[in-house]
Amino acid sequence: MRLSTPPFAPADTDVTDVDFLASTYYTEGDPHALWTHLRAHEPVHHFTPSDGREPFWVVTRHADVSRVLKDHSVFSSRRGTMLCIIDLSMPDIASDQMMPDTDPPRHGQLRDPLNRVMTPRAVAAQEETIRGIVREMLEPALDGEVFDLAQAALMFPMAFTGSMMGLPRETWDRMSRLTTMTIAYDDPEYMEKAPKPTLRQAHHELFSFFSDEIARRDRTDPGDDLIGILLRMSLEGEPLTERQIMLNCYSLLLGANVTTPHVVSTTALAMAEHPDQFRAIQENPQLRGTAMEELLRWSSPASHFMRYATADVELGGRTIRAGDPVSVWLGSANRDERVFKDPFTFDVARRPNRHIAFGVGPHYCIGSGLARLALRLFLDEFAERVEKVELAGEPVHLASNFVAGFKHLPVRLTPRAGTAPARSFAAAGAVA
Amino acid sequence: MSTQTTTAGAASQDYVAALFARLLNVPAPGPDDDFFVLGGTSLSAMDLIALIEQERGVQLPVRDFYRGTSVAELAATLDQLSEASA
Ligand code: HEM
User: Fold this and answer.
1) Which pLDDT band holds residue B3 (cuts at 50, 70, 90)?
2) Known PROSITE patterns for this protein (chain B) (predicted)?
3) Widest CA span of chain B, in angstroms?
4) Cβ–Cβ of A205/B63 closer than 8 Å?
5) Are β-strands A318-320 and A313-315 bridged in parallel, bridged antiparallel, or unpaired?
6) Which residue from A201, A198, A89, A182 is spatially nearest to B45, judged by alpha carbons?
7) A8-17, A89-98, A334-343, B49-58: segment of lowest average pLDDT
8) By three-state DSSP, how is residue A89 classified?
9) Chain A residue at shortest CA distance from B50
10) What does the domain layout of chain A look like in residue ranges?
11) What CA–CA distance (Å, rounded) separates A380 from A421?
């Protein structure tokens, strides 16, 4: 998705013409102008697709978005949490089986054992591995030639998540492409034949990779990585089925792969556009913590999530009926004038910063500790090794109604002369 | 030669139709009926491929399967694969 900034004229935005499902709207339209208009005039908007697909609600204010995500008793995840279900008219196949598509208390049975190894403290052990991955990603960009950072960034979370899950390295390239196919199923660079077959084939191939990996494991001694933990977990007193393990592997990998790269790309883009702020974080490492949070707010890579109402409920002056799908827009909530001072100003020192790029409530991103560690290591390395960032061509956005992201970002990086390698920020005492 | 291919093709179509019927719990699918239109999902497609390997000894790569998912198309793919391995 394009990160448009004012000046735009939100008052003139004609909401009746907008197709909230069309991926092209998010690449070529002006979603921030639309959301700004909706926040002001119609914070809970009802959208009816013109072609008979299921109508759904569009929620844009920070307070309403947070309420929907927190109140699982009225806004359930069980029927699925992404608009692709409505976009492609495909029912969710993971209800009650996959952590994101499960409500408490069942949700906790799937989440707690995984969460124990994904807390900020637990993932700190990954620091050296991830720093190595960051260096490998940036090294080829530092020769002063034009470099497509968006393409390199797509492999970044695959590498650290792939190793935490214990997936064989030779599968990573294909897996990374497949995860992108699932959220950019009508992007010409990722689509195969048509949107639906693209999504199905990507799911099927990913499940097959996981199924092979599960078959390779010794059930009595499955290992300590994430797949090993899934193999030892149980649900309602029974060990997870192979299906449940596959689906939860899928959600972990998808969660990591389709979001994190776009914060990396946004970092380069924002620093190219705001050289003064880049200088500030180069000279003052203390600012990098707030800078990273601002980059998360600014990029909001997961654009929406969805819930289904379980009862009639009032929200933003409208009545949502039991059974209605409700989409909440994190990118909009993170520009809400009611919560953020000058929301369209990029400010590496912003404080407070109550962004909800990782969501809020019971499904609050389980990978947030890992993502923050990885993005902080990237930001450190980027600030220490790069003198200047220039855009070397137009950014190209991924066609997706779910992910605000890039597929190409040509940049030219001028290396900083004679700098020492980045310090360990854990040693510097910055790990929360 | 051509008669043989036709016979082999028809046999495969019967097999695939029966397989769809079994997996998706539908009565007698025709040659143009598509696995996914009949209610298949990426998960049931995994079962389909596993059954074909068990029962026919043919390894059907995921990408080949998605090239054509109707009874007739899948039967043709299976015939090609068995010929290639014969
Ligand atoms: C910048 C990077 C990331 C962003 C912006 C992000 C965003 C989110 C958001 C908004 C949610 C809440 C979904 C909901 O309420 O339904 C979520 C959940 C989740 N994320 Fe992330 N995520 C990121 C990185 C990661 C990583 C690195 C992983 C895995 C290693 C991951 C795995 C997951 C999983 C499994 C869930 C579901 C949690 C649950 O249902 O309890 N994410 N993520």
Assistant:
1) very low
2) CARRIER
3) 38
4) yes
5) antiparallel
6) A201
7) A8-17
8) coil
9) A208
10) 10-415
11) 10
Cα gap B19→B40, rounded to integer Å: 12
Q: Is residue A319 within 8 Å of residue A313, measured between CB atoms? A: yes
pLDDT range class, residue A204, cuts 50, 70, 90 = very high
Ligand 1 closest atom vs CA A363: 41
- Which stretches of chain A sit within 8 Å of chain B by CB? 93, 192-193, 196-197, 199-201, 203-205, 207-208, 211, 243
Q: Poorest-confidence range of A10-14, A332-336, B23-27?
A: A10-14
d(Cα A397, Cα A406) in Å, to the nearest integer? 4
Domain ranges of chain B: 3-85
Measured distance CA(A177)–CA(A185) in Å, rounded? 11
pTM (two decimals): 0.93
Is residue A282 predicted with pLDDT exceeding 50?
yes
Helix (H) or strand (E) holding A309: strand A304-309
Model ipTM? 0.87
* B51–A contact, CB cutoff 8 A: no
Q: Please give the CATH architecture assigned to the domain spanning A10-415.
A: Orthogonal Bundle (1.10)
Residue A11: the pLDDT is: 62
Which has the closest alpha carbon to A268: A410, A105, A169?
A: A410
Cβ atoms of A356 and A330 within 8 Å: the answer is: yes
According to CATH, the superfamily of the domain at B3-85 is ACP-like (1.10.1200.10)
- The whole-chain average pLDDT of chain A stands at 94
Within 8 A by CB and 6+ apart from A153, the residues are: A137, A260, A261, A262, A264, A265, A406, A409
Distances (CA, A) of A83 to A304, A309, A328, B74: 8, 15, 10, 30
* Contacting residues of B for A201, CB less than 8 Å apart: 42, 62-63, 66
- Provide the pLDDT for residue B1: 40
Ligand 1 center to A260 CA (angstroms): 10
The pLDDT value recorded for residue B31 is 96
Q: Exposure string (b/e) for A17-45, b if CB count within 10 Å is 16 or more?
A: ebebbbbebbbebbbbbbbbbbbeeebbb
- Does residue A1 have a pLDDT over 70? no
Beta bridge partners of A302: A403
Residue of B nearest to A211 (CA): B46
Percent of chain A at pLDDT > 70 equals 94
